[in-house]
Amino acid sequence: MPSLFDGASARIEAALEHIEISEDVAQGLAQPDAALKVAVPLRHDDGRLTVFSGYRVRYDTTLGPAKGGIRFHPDVNADEVSTLSFWMAMKCAVMGLPFGGGKGGVAVDPKQLSRAELERLSRTYIDQVADAIGPDTDIPAPDVNTNPRVMGWMADQYRIITRAHAPGVITGKPIEMGGSAGRTTATGDGAYHTLATMMERWERDIDGTTVAIQGFGNAGQRFAKLCADAGYTVVAVSDSSGGVYNDNGLDIDSLAETKANHGSVTEAEGEQLSNADLVTLDVDVLAPAALESVITADNADQVAAGVIVEIANGPIASDADATLIDNNVAVLPDILANAGGVTVSYFEWVQNRQAWYWEADTVAERLNTRMVEATQAVADRADQHDVDYRTAAYIMALEKIDAATAATGTSAFFSNA
Ligand code: NAD
């Protein structure tokens, strides 16, 4: 399997077979604008000290300040954070948001920390990256294992450091601290809007359509709930401990309760299945909503689903693309399908700048409009160039960054002067 970053470059190359962008942009996108690695020391409750590795990467800021989440996970590393920040640049461009791409993280297992340790770690991370972030430069948000409370600690730490109230430095904050209505559900909502838009476009019935979802966290759980409520049959869901299956459809509310009370969906009664088996399950729609590279060249041929909604970032490794295309699997790509989160983060940032807060209905309606428009635009592009949806989304993103770069002059402009 190629490295995540090489995989990201492969997707650009696929798009460049269909459009031309200036060499200036190609060079600019070949590496991050800035990559910061920091030590994040944590004094444990029992007095021990552990120094974790932390990262913040600003990939590209052609379209606006960098934007992207902060992940707490043992596997966080420089390659992963760089790639995630690159994807954010592409995603913001596809969605027409005035942002570039950024990402951050700490290589830590937060499940091993007490609440007080987690707070200290969150604040120390901000101490270490404070010079690199800001409401006009680079704006973090939640990602895997970080949530509104963590964002609240981080925003508060930034306020302490700068001695100024700047809520727009971080999105995904608790509502009480300047968060937006609808941010917590935004990623699942957006993924659902993308699927719903495409189901209509394909003129497919929801009735009898089966769905399997890997990852039952913030994004996966909301998507599961919306699918079940709309009449899809959600036959399987999983989390890091494994999955559950019911061919008549699972009760999502009851699974959410089990997960909240017992820590895993596997504590629910019913047929159990592994995460590996979930990916190859004979369903209509597969939604990977956990981590990267769960579908690779090794298992792509066994994927039975006709549609994949990439709720996670990078769940399909680039070496699986060709097989999925050959097998007519329609992949609704991450840089579109999971963009609901960053879209409502954008709304939050706008509200913070104006100190004027929107009703939940307004947020929901504006998110829906943006997701439907972006999905239709990607699907139109796919038809126009006769390419898969991912390549179409990359074409759109690259063209936007190329146009913004051309506006200030590229090599072609200056060499002809
Ligand atoms: P989360 O921490 O709330 O949930 C992650 C879920 O994945 C949990 O249920 C966890 O048990 C499960 N999981 C972890 N390891 C797993 C494994 N090996 N196999 C199966 N399941 C596993 O995180 P989230 O915010 O829901 O994010 C999930 C994915 O969506 C990530 O790829 C993230 O980058 C992406 N995403 C999130 C947002 C957002 O706003 N939260 C926005 C865009 C993309």
Provide a descriptive summary of the structure in words.
The chain is 45% helix and 17% strand. The termini are far apart. It has 15 helices and twelve strands. Helix 4 packs across helix 5. Strand 3, helix 3 and strand 4 (100-106) form a beta-alpha-beta unit. The longest helix is centred in the last third of the chain and has 26 residues, at 360-385. It has a seven-stranded mixed sheet. It has helices spanning 4-16, 23-28, 78-95, 115-129, 148-162, 186-201, 218-230, 252-262, 275-279, 321-326, 334-337, 340-354, 360-385, 389-408, 411-415; strands at residues 34-43, 49-60, 66-72, 100-106, 138-142, 210-214, 233-239, 242-245, 271-273, 285-288, 307-309, 330-332. The chain has two domains: 34-177, Rossmann fold (3-Layer(aba) Sandwich), CATH 3.40.50.10860; 186-337, NAD(P)-binding Rossmann-like Domain (Rossmann fold), CATH 3.40.50. The protein has 417 residues and is α/β, with parallel strands linked by helices. Nicotinamide-adenine-dinucleotide is lined by residues 142-145, 187, 214-220, 238-240, 275, 289-291, 311-313, 338, 341. Nicotinamide-adenine-dinucleotide binds next to helix 7 and strand 7.
